[in-house]
Amino acid sequence: MLGIAKEDVLKSLCRDNPWWGETHRYGGDSCTLRRAYFKPFTELALDWSIRRSTVLMGPRRVGKTVMLHQFVAHALRKNLPGSSIMFASIDTPLDRLLTIFEERTQHDPEGRRIVIFDEIQHLKDWEVHLKVLTDRHPNTRFIVSGSAAAALRLKSHESGAGRFTDSLLPPLTFAEFLSFRNLEDALIMATRRAPAVRCGVHDIQRLNQEFINYLNFGGYPEAVLNESVQTDVQRFLGRDIIDKVLLRDLPSLYGIRDIQELNRLFTTIACNSGQEISLDGLARNSGASKATINRYLEYLEAAFLIVRVCRMDDTGKSFRRMRNFKVYLTNPSMRSALFAPVHDDDEPIGAMAETAIFSQWLHSDLMRYIRYARWKQGRADLEVDLVRIDAARFKPLRAYEIKWSDRYAGGRPKELRGLVELAKKHADIPLSVGATTKTLTRVAEVDGVEIEHFPCALHCYQVGKNVAEGRAP
């Protein structure tokens, strides 16, 4: 097999590392807008006290490469010599790249260095070589990234235990979306900053307009910053999801033969995000076995495309075997990218609003304690959209319904019966309950249960803002 000539590798590296030049002067970040995750990522990657490499993972189009360039700019500002930093995105063995780097810049290989390998998934057995290099060079901070998130996660966990630390860069939160559009200060006012941010809104109608924009294209930085992409999300982003993730990344990683079956499953989920489904039902409708469907769901989760949410009953008990569960897109914009934009009065808007709120929770470790509740009470099937479980007692801590309507804030017992009955069941805690609205903020009492009502878009902002900054919402 023919390799790449050393001269060509060096040309590529010199192009990607302009800070190697003696006359190079830092002129600013490649993009001045930073993700909320930039600071924690930087602190992790520049922790010299622990011999670990950082694996930056996440779905396509969320700004990983841009953040890596911003990270290099940050390191240069911290007076790390440019000759001690390498950024590589070429399909060449890692140790060979390191040798060329050392020869070209004449730096001290025993000193502090930063070595970045972008799109690492294209390199065979990268995780084995990276582990060797991590052990061999204790003062070098290796950072790898890639868009084949499922592959990175799988191999990082298999081979990098104790040597690799994962860092997830998810799609934009609603708070980041408003910040990128320079609307955060104009629309949001902080009413409390500790222990968690609580906010009011200057203009709820405008905030709702921006929330719908967020549902349609807001998860992708490229779309937020480029009006051409916003007007044709299906063309610019929809095919990227299908062609690169479903038809290439996942089949090559897991050896999937029936690619169209996987495609149909994901399309069905995208169209029905937030609905309760079962393996039996999916298998019956698709003709595939339950084992196959379950594997496909695991693959889609590993690729950060979907998340499954477990069901609990009214006692707080979760079910070990997930026969029934809800599936959400990890980014509500994927639905618009695959089908069509949603509008204020469209039928899917409620499900997409619910998907958006769950997608904010995905950024948090608390997601493992998020459930939905469904149970039978007499002849009635009762349900609550989102329940947060206490980590210590495994009892409901907070529960709320997610609605894109003001009609539920009128104190109607039948409309929110599941929420009311769950609160009564756990009156000894007591359980904090609420329901989102479209525009209203108020507290109502239903059958002796106090229900807090708050705008859906504002709540989505608060959850994303708190989670991205490391606070419990």
Total helical elements: 19
Structural category: alpha/beta
Global outline: globular
Percentage of residues in strands: 15-25%
Amino- and carboxy-terminal Cα gap: 54 Å
**Can you tell me the residue ranges where pLDDT is under 50 for at least 5 consecutive residues?**
none
What is this entry, summarized?
42% of the residues lie in helices and 19% in strands. It is α/β, with parallel strands linked by helices. The strands form four sheets. A seven-stranded mixed β-sheet has the order 10-12-13-14-15-17-16. Strands 2-3-4-1-5 form a five-stranded parallel β-sheet, with helices on both faces.
Structural description of this entry:
- It is a single chain.
- With 473 residues, the protein is α/β, with parallel strands linked by helices.
- The chain folds into two domains: 163 residues, P-loop containing nucleotide triphosphate hydrolases (Rossmann fold, 3-Layer(aba) Sandwich), CATH 3.40.50; 294 residues, no CATH class.
- The chain has a seven-stranded mixed β-sheet.
- Helix 1 packs across helix 4.
List the SSEs and their pairings:
Blueprint: H1 6-16, H2 38-45, E1 53-57, H3 64-77, E2 85-88, H4 94-105, E3 113-117, H5 126-136, E4 140-145, H6 149-159, E5 164-168, H7 174-180, H8 184-187, E6 188-192, E7 198-201, H9 204-217, H10 221-225, H11 227-231, H12 233-254, H13 259-271, E8 276-278, H14 279-286, H15 290-302, E9 306-309, E10 311-312, E11 324-329, H16 333-338, H17 349-361, E12 370-377, E13 380-389, E14 396-401, H18 417-425, E15 432-437, E16 442-446, E17 449-455, H19 456-468
Parallel strand pairs: 1-4, 1-5, 2-3, 3-4, 10-12, 14-15, 15-17
Antiparallel strand pairs: 6-7, 8-11, 9-11, 12-13, 13-14, 16-17
